[in-house]
Specification:
Number of domains: 1
Helix content: under 10%
CATH topology: Lipocalin
Distance between the termini: 67 Å
Radius of gyration: 19 Å
Low-confidence stretches: 1-21, 187-199
Structural class: mainly beta
CATH architecture: Beta Barrel
Shape: globular
Order of helices and strands: HHEEEEEEEEEE
Number of strands: 10
Largest sheet: 10 strands, antiparallel, barrel
Strand content: over 45%
């Protein structure tokens, strides 16, 4: 009897499906972002300034279904020898009152910032406008994630310092999913945002 109980306990501890409760599937329009759900790991780089040298490191990502599948949480991080060099923490949802996707940015010590988001087949993007004196100036930041049929994820971070007229890349990462079959697009991805969506 002890051997039988010990075997059942060992099986439960060794099986991820038994050890962890399954997260609810994404619901309604947000189900289009299911390709982001899971754990991701790879390499990436970032640069603090437009003309700075890139700093390389280990990239990780985590996509989770939240609020019973009505929100998607995405966290990614780039860790180098110097420590954490870049981090993104955002939750996506679909606003039925405006028939649009929205993003909420979470930064330690700062209020949650709301902004635009887009979700297409195998691609998601979102961004924020940092406070500025004039609407046509100041920093804009946008992220784009694509997942291919081989379950590989590419995450790109871009920045504009002239109100969204020109952009430069400050972050890039390539990660592989630990599970899943990847994403197979059934339609043309949405066009890249222009930076004007924030208003």
């Amino acid at each position: 009897m002890r051997i039988l109980l010990g075997g059942i306990l060992l099986l439960a501890l060794s099986s991820p499906a038994l050890a962890q409760p399954a997260s609810p599937p994404l619901r309604r329009e947000l189900a289009r972002a299911t390709f982001l759900v899971g754990d991701w790991q790879g390499t990436g780089w970032t640069r603090l300034g437009k003309d700075d040298q890139p700093i390389s490191g280990t990239a990780t990502g985590e996509g989770r279904s939240l609020l019973s599948g009505l929100s998607l949480g995405w966290k990614s991080q780039l860790r180098a020898e110097q420590g954490v060099m870049s981090a993104s923490d955002v939750s996506l949802r679909f606003r039925r009152d405006s028939t649009d996707f929205r993003a909420s940015f979470h930064a330690p010590g700062h209020p949650v910032q709301e902004s635009w988001a887009r979700v297409a087949d195998c691609e998601a993007s979102w961004g924020i406008q940092l406070p500025a004196a004039r609407a046509d100036s100041g920093d804009h930041i946008r992220y784009t994630i694509r997942v291919d049929g081989s379950n590989r994820l590419t995450e790109t971070g871009e920045r504009s310092e002239d109100g969204g007229r020109t952009w430069w890349q400050f972050y890039g990462a390539e990660m592989a999913g630990k599970s899943g079959e990847g994403c197979r697009a059934s339609a043309t991805p949405a066009p890249a945002p222009t930076g004007r969506e924030e208003r």
